[in-house]
Amino acid sequence: MSDEEPAGHKKDTAGRTFTVLLALAANLAVGLLKLVAGLISGSGALLSEAAHSVGDCTTEVLLLVALRRSDRPADRLHPFGYGKERYFWSLLAAGAIFVSGAAFSIYQGLHTIFGPPESTEELWINYPVLALAFILEGTSFLQALRKVRQQSRSQSRSIVSLFRAPEDPTTNSVAMEDAAALIGLALAGAGVGLHQLTGNALWDGFASILIGGLLLFVAYVLAHACQELLIGKQADPRLLRAIETRLEEEREIEDVVDLLTMLTGAGKVLVCVRADFADEVSAGQMEDACARIDEDLREKFPQIDEFFIQPVSSANPDVRERVVARYGRVLADE
Fold this sequence. Notes:
- The structure is a single chain.
- By secondary structure, the protein is mainly α.
- It is 69% helix and 9% strand.
- The protein has a three-stranded mixed sheet with strand order 1-2-3, with helices on both faces.
- The longest helix has 35 residues.
- It starts with 6 loop residues before the first helix and ends in a 7-residue tail after the last helix.
């Protein structure tokens, strides 16, 4: 395999990096604004939003590390490459959202509710800060959403499906963080407004707790997606069916007995096949067929990173038993 990455992959990585850098810049700016406004006004909701921005900044730094480290070429110690580093650092990013954002927001909300009453005189300063933060976060969100839509089109999947079962959590992480940030800003604005209107800091504290709950939800969704990818998730079932159909069209193959896939990184799939070759195929012909099939499949399915094929009889009871235990059915034709 060549050490040079395809131009399309480099462009895609550059696009993801720009998306994360834009989100980082936006969160740094709005985080400072929220912190200053929160300290001046004493608003628990604004301080919670400042913690939210700190969590997002930490997340973006971890995602940049993920993008850089996951693109290293395969070596002797890691023959399938470093693609799964993206999942590991994304999991740490989800933890950062929980620790630095959600926990502090819930604490700040409880402190505001049960602490001494806060003055409402300086609350006005929060409104221009929230408006500017909404513009910056919205710009970052639109860029992340554009990248998600590109992924959706390239994979022929809906955006909802992409968020539920991502193959690359980095762009999804930024999009979810920015969406949560926009909702959080709306909650903070409502809490501050009701606090100023009623003179009761309960609303401000309740908004902080809701922001903390929102961050907990985002952290859970991202962590769950990364967990499945780290454990070793199979490729899109549509890709499996397409590969199986293509293999059974080969004249040397009678049946596809077993088909195993695993995502080894963003846009990288490991494929292992057990196939029943026709009895009249000689050893030399089988070698030539395997080389041709490898080349054909890689050309038709660019996401295939490594491909292995093993000849096996479709009547082998041990193999059939393992396939049934895994998929609930026999892949080979009866």
